[in-house]
Prior knowledge:
This protein is mainly alpha-helical. The protein folds into two domains: 19-120, no CATH class; 122-256, no CATH class. Helices cover 75% and strands 3% of the residues. It contains nine helices and two strands. A two-stranded antiparallel ribbon has the order 1-2. Strand 1 (150-152) and strand 2 form a beta hairpin. The longest helix is centred in the last third of the chain and has 29 residues, at 188-216. It is globular.
Amino acid sequence: MSRLISGIVLAVAALAAILFLPVFALRLLVALIAALAAHEYLRIVGGDVRLFPAAAIVSWVLSGPSGVTAVWLVAFLALAMVVVSVLFTGLDAGRSAAAAFSLIYIGLPLGLLVTVHAVVGWKATILLIASVVVSDSMQYYTGRLLGRRPLAPTVSPKKTIEGALGGVVFGAIFMVVAGPYVFSGVGPLAFAMLGLVIVTLGIIGDLFESRLKRQAGVKDSSDLIPGHGGVLDRIDALLLAIPAFWIFASMYAGAA
């Protein structure tokens, strides 16, 4: 029951934020999400959790008026994080680099998401999120109905190849049907390709975070959200999908 209630509250809050918050407030909210997710990620990979605000800074700057022209900041801050971590925390270069990856893995895509929202509009944001949600839901139901062969047994034993294929197919169909309401003048083939890329990256993103948690020996990134784990658990499928969607929006709606 707590999972259901939490899920409803999260869905309503996310929809309200997308529909009603001005861009400045949305930037603040997304920066907070980036900070929370980065804190969870750093705990998982054994990085210095005191560096979690860097992901929020990247998200904030990339979603501002300068937009993606400030992508160089990601590289600069990532390098600075590695240097600071190696010099002052005693972590080795590998773990320090893994910690710096939070800027690219979390801060960058969340910043790009707000950029798309600001330039293209709330419909684009909902299209992306809904495509991932539809794919995730159909992976579950298709897997329960037809699933026989495990997709990645050492990473996520419950995921099946049949479920993943169901998620990809239905996610692509949803994009073909809903995409024209957001991007006019784009053919169904382009939407089908976008849907395939988005949901495939979503599946990879989910498996990537699952691998991180398994290596760390934890079930969830945190217990912040009752029944759902942490913030990173909720956005893992979106993180890899957002840059691809931003590229599409840049081509067809001038989001860059």
